[in-house]
Design brief:
This protein has eleven helices and twelve strands. By secondary structure, the chain is of the alpha/beta class. Belongs to the NAD(P)-dependent epimerase/dehydratase family. Dihydroflavonol-4-reductase subfamily. Keywords: Oxidoreductase.
Length: 340
């Protein structure tokens, strides 16, 4: 019998591609949405890639509430916990992001363990395995944990670290059959399924529309959303993946090189992309006096430290595609969907 997999947060960018990959491999999929009015949009987005037939179902559940999770996991074999709250530090209250991420992960795990789900694969982030100080050089792997008590951490980074730690602590105290694996992606780009599910690719959209009039000296470890969906499924099915963390970062690429790739490959659609490098001093000045939202990116200026994906290659035989291909496919997809 085909396996049934629950994917949390079905309206999200990464979750949508996980659903596509699962359906393409013959699985039945149930996905959570916060309200029934999102079902049609999710179905339409997924249907652009694969026939949903009768193999895609929905459950209403929210990370901030207990209701609905027991019903969501009933009868499923595996869970891909991809959903995570987005947003920032609301009125100085970091808990606005931290509590939903941590408590939401625990709600999913409690329900999954109670239902006897075989394995939960949880999407974390590469910045939960990074030096807290944003070291400018060096390579780290899954053995490193970001210090959540570092006062310089932005709320998103702290929320992902605390949520993953809480998940591992919960599983350490659980003696049932359910297993946990975590996937730690880098910067996620690639094709979109629908204009309303752009996720992290807004950077590319802003480049293409010309609203990003210059690029800061920031490097990203770019992973294609299709490759990220693939590693989730590998982590779900590999016997050796149980109880493991897997970094899922791709090729290190400066934002300037992203801009150049879009200009060179997209023709007329890329004409508004700026390839002007913004000096670090100008970014820091703007963050301090003009645009406080830039403060979150200033620690990353000039940073070159990388994450090793040797473990994912060795255990899961995972190999991401080149970053340039991902960026260009992302741009073409945004144009094709009328998102720019």
């Amino acid at each position: 019998m085909p396996e049934t997999v629950l994917v949390t947060g079905g309206s999200g960018y990464v979750a949508g591609w996980c659903i596509v990959e699962l359906l393409q491999r013959g699985c039945h999929v149930r996905t959570t949405v916060r309200s029934r009015d999102k079902e049609e949009a999710v179905t339409a987005a997924v249907a652009t890639q694969v026939d949903t037939a009768d193999r895609l179902g929905f459950a209403v559940a929210d990370l901030t509430a207990d209701d609905g999770w027991d019903a969501a996991v009933k009868g499923v074999d595996h869970v891909l916990h991809v959903a995570s709250p987005l947003g920032g530090n609301v009125d100085g209250n970091a808990d606005a992001m931290i509590a939903p991420a941590r408590d939401g992960a625990l709600r999913v795990l409690r329900a999954a363990c109670g239902a006897g789900v075989r394995r939960v694969v949880m999407t974390s982030a590469a910045n939960t395995a990074s030096p807290s100080s944003y070291a400018t050089e060096g390579t780290t792997d899954e053995t490193l944990w970001t210090d959540p008590d570092d006062p310089t951490l932005i709320p998103y980074r702290r929320s992902k670290t605390l949520a993953e730690r809480a998940a591992w602590d919960f599983m350490a105290a659980h003696d049932g059959p359910t297993e946990l694996t975590t996937v730690l992606p880098g910067a996620v780009f690639g094709p979109i399924l629908a204009p309303g599910t752009t996720g992290s690719v807004d950077i590319v959209r802003r480049m293409l529309t010309g609203t990003m009039r210059g690029v800061p000296r920031i490097g990203l470890e770019i992973v294609d959303v299709r490759d990220l969906a693939d590693i989730h499924l590998r982590a779900m099915t590999s016997p050796r993946a149980a109880g493991e963390r897997f970094l899922a970062t791709g090729e290190f690429t400066w934002m300037l090189d992203m801009a150049r790739a879009l200009r060179e490959e997209l023709g007329e659609a890329g004409r508004r992309v700026s390839t002007r490098q913004i000096p670090d001093l100008a970014v820091r000045f703007a963050a301090r006096f003009l645009d406080p939202s830039l403060r979150d990116i200033t620690p990353a200026l000039g940073r070159r430290n990388r994450h090793s994906t040797a473990k994912a290659h060795r255990i899961l035989e995972w190999q991401p595609r080149p970053a340039r291909e991902t960026v260009v496919d992302c741009g073409r997809s945004l144009v094709a969907h009328g998102a720019v």
